């Protein structure tokens, strides 16, 4: 489905750290933070052990806690919601736009109550949310940008991660660039950055000794091996993103005009950071039968996402059920992620689309 883009310079960067003997909190982390903040167009980067860890620290540092309501889409990865649950906050699910799959800005005013404290915005599949409308609707709320799938994306030429109080990138191997495991908080808020640095490092203060803890913290640090890989990868981010855009364009051209499928929609005012290539099948196509038939031809594909408000642990806790988010549920039944990475060739794209064409007709009712 996906494949990281690793080369000799990545290997050398990691080996250099091994030879240096400094494996934690060293110069590579600082350099990686600087470069990531630059990509987001903000003052601060705080490197952490995963995207989930970064989002959790933002929630904690913003003081979002027990019984606070947070508006969040259900059409996302579970981590966007889990970090709210870790702090006892209550997710209030909002429906999405049927074309971009991002949260519907009008939902923010419809679903909020006096207990609503914040919004978790997700830039789904690397397409920025409608940030102008979101920022307006959420102007008196705290705003977190889950840009874990969107590093380098821009809305009206402003980078994701620069909107809201803070954003977070993620670097798991299926993302646009990788550090193995890893994440990066990005923010312009000095105090928030300082608190996140302390919280990721067992609650230690900036100046205090190693055994002085100012608050309850976590071990969410990024190690130097990962940070070195991050520095090496982020220097090639623009190349990665243009290669991915090229692959997406090949798919989209090949799929144009077919009645049984809609290629991803890209709004005019955004620059994508292609994370995955997700098509929407026509209503009469049995998506799961397509996945099986593609697998039989040796082509991996995936249903993406499975709504979080319908996951067993969420239904049990909050009584959520089918029918609550009609657009989310309809889209989630019909979306299909195709194989996608930086070096997919025209022949491979042709093979995937050819197989898709063959299997879709019998799967249509
Ligand atoms: C990848 C991802 C995360 C973070 O994932 P980690 O595996 O913890 O790095 C968070 N939110 C979304 C939407 C993601 O896609």
Structure description:
There is one protein chain. By secondary structure, the chain is an alpha/beta fold. 40% of the residues lie in helices and 15% in strands. The chain has helices at residues 8-20, 27-40, 51-61, 79-86, 105-111, 131-137, 190-200, 224-234, 237-255, 287-296, 312-318, 326-334, 346-363, and strands at residues 44-48, 69-73, 90-94, 116-122, 142-146, 154-155, 158-159, 166-170, 183-187, 261-262, 270-271, 277-281, 335-338. The strands form three sheets. Strands 1-9-8-5-4-2-3 form a seven-stranded mixed beta sheet, with helices on both faces. The chain has a three-stranded antiparallel beta sheet with strand order 7-6-11, with no helix packed on it. The protein starts with 7 loop residues before the first helix and ends with a helix. The model has no long low-confidence stretch (mean pLDDT 97). The structure holds pyridoxal-5'-phosphate (PLP).
N-to-C CA distance:
27 Å
Q: What's the overall geometry?
A: globular
- Count the DSSP helices: 13
Which bin fits the share of residues in helices? 25-40%
| Low-pLDDT stretches | none
* Radius of gyration of CA atoms, rounded to a whole number: 21 Å
């Amino acid at each position: 489905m996906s494949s990281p883009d690793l080369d000799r310079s990545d290997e050398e960067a990691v080996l250099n750290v091994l030879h240096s003997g400094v494996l934690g909190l060293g110069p590579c982390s600082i350099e990686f933070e600087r470069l990531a903040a630059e990509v987001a167009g903000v003052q601060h980067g705080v490197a952490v052990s995963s995207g989930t860890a970064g989002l959790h620290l933002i929630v904690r540092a913003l003081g979002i806690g027990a019984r606070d309501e947070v508006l969040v889409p259900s059409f996302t990865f579970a981590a966007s919601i889990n970090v709210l649950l870790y702090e006892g906050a209550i997710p209030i699910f909002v429906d999405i736009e049927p074309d971009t799959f991002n949260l519907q800005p009008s939902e923010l005013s419809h679903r909020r109550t006096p207990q609503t404290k914040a919004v978790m915005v997700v830039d789904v599949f690397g397409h920025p949310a409608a940030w102008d409308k979101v920022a307006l609707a959420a102007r008196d709320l705290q705003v977190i940008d889950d840009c874990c799938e969107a590093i380098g994306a821009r809305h009206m030429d402003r980078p994701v991660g620069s909107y809201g109080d803070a954003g977070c990138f993620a670097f798991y191997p299926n993302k646009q660039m990788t550090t193995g495991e890893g994440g990066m908080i990005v923010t312009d808020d000095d105090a928030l950055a300082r608190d996140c640095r302390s919280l990721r490092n067992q609650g230690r203060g900036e100046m205090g000794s190693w055994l002085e803890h100012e608050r309850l913290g976590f071990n969410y640090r990024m190690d130097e091996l990962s940070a070195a890989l991050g520095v090496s990868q982020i220097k090639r981010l623009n190349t990665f993103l243009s290669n991915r855009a090229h692959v997406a364009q090949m798919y989209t051209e090949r799929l144009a005009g077919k009645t049984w499928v809609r290629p991803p929609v890209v709004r005019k005012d955004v620059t994508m950071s292609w994370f995955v290539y997700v098509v929407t099948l026509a209503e009469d196509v049995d998506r799961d039968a397509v996945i099986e038939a593609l697998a039989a031809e040796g082509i991996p594909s995936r249903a993406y996402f499975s709504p979080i408000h319908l996951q067993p642990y969420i239904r049990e806790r909050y009584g959520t059920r089918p029918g609550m988010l009609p657009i989310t549920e309809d889209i989630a039944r019909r979306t299909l992620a195709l194989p996608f990475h930086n070096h997919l060739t025209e022949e491979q794209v042709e093979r995937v689309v050819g197989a898709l064409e063959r299997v879709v007709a019998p799967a249509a009712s």
